[in-house]
Structure of Exodeoxyribonuclease 7 small subunit:
Amino acid sequence: MVKKKLTYKELTEKLDDIIENLESGELSVEESMEKYEEGVKITKELLAILNKAEEKVKIMRDQDEMEF
């Protein structure tokens, strides 16, 4: 089964939920570590999305400058 790629908004919401869970203090050490690792993975995904968007903006800006 193909895993659906989450949007930036969905990823940030998921990260917010993880942060709330971690800050609640109700998780065991093991659960906290799992949530932390998941949060790091999501953060990397978010940074990749932002970097890709930044590259697209640079390309569009460079193309506009070449037209003038």
In short: Residues 8-67 form one domain.
